[in-house]
Amino acid sequence: MKIEEMKSQNFEHVSLEEWKKTAEASLKGKSLAKLYTETYEQITLKPLYLKADIESVEEEQFPGIPSYTRGFYKGGYVERSLKTAHPLKAHSASNLQTKLSAAMQAGQDALSFSIEEQARMTFRECSQLLSNPYPLYINTKDHFLAFSAFLLKADLAELQGVIGTDLLSHFAAKGLVPDEQALDLHFEALTEMKQRYPKVKTVVINTVPYDLAGATAIQEIAIALSQAVFYIEWLKEKGWTPLEAVQLFSFHFAIGSQFFMEVAKLRAFRKLWTALCESYQIHGEAVKVTVGAETSEFTLSKLDRHVNILRTGSEAFAALLGGVEYLQVTPFDQFNGTTSTLAERVAKNIPLMLQSESHLTKVVDPAGGSYFIESLTNELAQAAWKKFLQIEESGGMLSVLKEGTLQKELAQVLEQRIVDLAVRKKSMIGTNIYADLNETFFSEHEGMEVLLADRQVTSYKELLNQVSEERTLAELHVRDSGEQVIPVKSQRLAEPFEQLRERAVGIQASGKTIQAGLICLGKLKDFKPRADYVTGVLSTGGISVQLSDECHSVEEAVRYVKETQFPYYCICGKDETYKEFGPSLVAELKQAETAIQIDIAGKLSEEENAEWRAAGLNGHVFAGQNLLDKLSSLLALWEGGATHE
Fold this sequence. Notes:
The chain is an alpha/beta fold and 645 residues long.
């Protein structure tokens, strides 16, 4: 078709009723309600969004205009370029310097590294490393006081970027809230850094620990705002104005697997942050805080680790559409021993591909104007603001952490997420579905052990005076001082399933073979659907299966059991076939091998179940079952323990 003809083509108008009829036809009798999705934010996602869905939304026509939903800058990434801040991993400061040179030549444009891995870095090595023109993006965690002391003592050119520790979230993950002494030392360091390096953002608000505890997008935004209020009010008490405080603010988010929700999260945050600034009479450029993000560790798995490439790629994509300034992509084998060179390269290249090959940074706010995104952003913003006010009415972040109410709320969401994986309401490829029994299972790498000084200082100047050429970050570490609270506990979603696989590996290491038998009743087409389902379920727990030949009689099934002598069998077939064989099948199998456990695939009626149970049936394998409970029980068979349904 010629260009002129293409330009003249029109799409016929389709009414909502016509769309509904077509959709219902494709669902083959199922209700349209099947296409609606309820999120953990308790937001209902519709299958179709129309202009009417945003008629009540005050959508912004251009980026760079308050309330900055569409971005802080009119030109988007064309005006303010994305900074790839891949955290470099190295076993020494010299190795880190080598990796830094290679990374910058390969397109990285911000310096970031694991502060824990470099805890043995000396003052001299740090000074050499930071003698470069690139912006810094470093989460200093336990080492903010020591690292900032290094920077203040060094003869460095003007630094820029982000260097800091979020005391609230960092301490909360340890089960602490900072006390007055910890806050005073932190304030002294902030003050010195502000005077020496005014272009460095040192007041970091990091929601990642809450993301790792299972937080929803609503909770993340509300927590970010509440922590911002905490820091503004704390610094006001120290004599800073709100304007002085926010000019040093940097927000850091984790980007999860719910693509559109994550895009909307970043957009909704900017909108609410602008509203919060208004309440403090902060306007103009000061509102445009630094926003960085990392792909979430919460969604990564040790098992089938290459799937993590797809997860992190999608999450990085969402981060760019949401408009972050700094981006970090987690290596796909982060939790599988030492991170490989391939994983490092893939993590570094994902943002480069999104920029150079997908050209995402050449379009200003590509998500803007979407009925779906705009509607979702609005719903998210309203709910997050309500949650933020609830936290503030409860006394603010410090109070809810001390009372433990926030930790309990996060634990409830995390529990629901894990249950949804356990019953396969949600899928995690390679973990709770499509598990690969041949996958090599690595133990998590503990990293280099660093002995930290248990030092207590009364002033920051005292710490500054202790900096010398060969002093390391670890040697200048200051002991945490705070009040104990319920920890904000981090846990990856895949961990409960990984623990099952670790149990299986331990059993095999003792010399046992973990194999189950499937008793296949009738012809292949009759038993295959349920046999495939059971095979998939058992593989997620590290249990392999052997299928029997077609069993057309009880005698054939008994012969298979006698020949194989596995501790566990599952009967697979159609409901009609179960009726043909009847409960006597189980009785005959138990008579042949008394020690075996027998389940049946699928559910039976209440009356039938009672009859089969009386004959010796132990349980069932069925869709919607809690697989974590079931597989844990089955593994106990090979461990020699008792099992339960």
